[in-house]
């Protein structure tokens, strides 16, 4: 082992930085952007120190990207026989908490926001506004429900029922994931944990949503010893100044997309 032949080298533990909103938009927290980062980190694991840390700071977002990233982490951990520890920074809620549950252990600050095991969806309706400004809606479809949830048409009770059922199915999968990954550790009643509420890390510990308190540095040293150091894996910006100039418009697009009847972990 390298620790035997090179005793002067400090142990390194891979830390995968998972920060931001879960969304399929390029550059956000998603499989396309972060999949290679996760694979690279697990590929560099030392056989004598099979540990990975997830540095999580995310309020949630896309259920699909939450599941894709969580599944990838579990596959890599199984293949490399690695133990995964999640460290929640400011926020590990909704989809961010889904990612944390991909770990074998979850730690946070007593002041971190954790939980929010629920689903949200919605949009806007502009029917009255269109009438005031004299705009006539012309919509042509093939398929009875092709224009379901159209913001320029009156809302239908059957459409609301459809969305509620859809969100309920996603919520069921979220709850099943938490039950699987936190089996035997959930303390509070499920009706209190799975109602979509978020909480501070202190209550999260008492409820069984997390296992303890800590930060990346303290976890690195606990797992690898006093001399251990983190090896951080993060995405690299390809656009430099251009990405900064585009930041405002990208943020606006994200807000618009989230409001258009999109179902989210948030």
**How many strand segments?**
8
CATH H-level superfamily title = 2-enoyl-CoA Hydratase, Chain A, domain 1
Could you give the distance between the termini? 44 Å
Number of helices: 10
How many domains? The number is: 1
Instruction: List SSEs in N-to-C order.
Output: HEHEHEHEEHHHEHEHEH
* Structural class designation: alpha/beta
How would a crystallographer describe the biggest sheet?
A: 8 strands, mixed
**Would you tell me which CATH topology applies?**
2-enoyl-CoA Hydratase, Chain A, domain 1
Q: Tell me the CATH architecture.
A: Alpha-Beta Complex
Integer-rounded radius of gyration: 22 Å
Question: Which geometry do the CA atoms define?
Answer: elongated
Mean pLDDT, as a whole number?
85
List low-confidence stretches: 1-5, 238-261
Class in CATH? Alpha Beta
Helix content: 40-55%
Bin the strand percentage.
15-25%
Give an overview of the whole structure.
The chain has helices spanning about 1-5, 30-45, 65-80, 95-100, 125-135, 155-180, 190-195, 200-205, 215-225, 240-260; strands spanning about 10-20, 50-60, 85-95, 105-110, 115, 200, 210-215, 230-235. With about 270 residues, it is an alpha/beta fold. The chain is elongated, with a radius of gyration of 22 Å. Residues about 1-5 and about 240-260 have low confidence and may be disordered.
């Amino acid at each position: 082992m390298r620790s035997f032949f090179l005793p002067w080298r400090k142990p390194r533990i891979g830390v995968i930085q998972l920060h931001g909103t879960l969304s399929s938009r390029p550059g956000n927290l998603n499989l396309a952007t972060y999949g290679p980062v996760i694979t690279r980190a697990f590929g560099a694991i030392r056989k004598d120190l099979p540990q990975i840390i997830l540095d999580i700071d995310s309020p949630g977002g896309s259920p699909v990207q939450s599941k894709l990233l969580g599944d990838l982490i579990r596959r890599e951990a199984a293949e490399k026989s690695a133990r995964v520890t999640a460290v929640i920074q400011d926020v590990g809620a909704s989809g961010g908490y889904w990612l944390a549950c991909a770990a074998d252990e979850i730690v946070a600050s007593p002041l971190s926001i954790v939980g929010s095991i629920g689903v949200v969806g919605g949009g806007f309706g502009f029917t009255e506004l269109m009438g005031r400004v004299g705009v006539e809606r012309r919509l042509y479809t093939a398929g009875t429900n092709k224009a379901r949830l159209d913001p320029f048409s009156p809302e239908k009770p059957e459409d609301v029922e459809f969305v509620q059922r859809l969100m309920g199915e996603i919520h069921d999968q979220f709850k099943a994931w938490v039950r699987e990954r936190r089996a035997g550790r959930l303390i509070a009643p499920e009706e209190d944990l799975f109602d979509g509420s978020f909480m501070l890390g202190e209550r999260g510990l008492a409820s069984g949503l997390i296992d303890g308190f800590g930060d990346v540095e303290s976890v690195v040293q606990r797992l690898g010893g006093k001399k251990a150091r983190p090896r951080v894996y993060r995405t690299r910006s390809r656009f430099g100044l251009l990405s900064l100039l585009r930041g405002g418009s990208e943020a606006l697009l994200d807000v618009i997309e989230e409001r258009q009847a999109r179902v989210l972990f948030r």
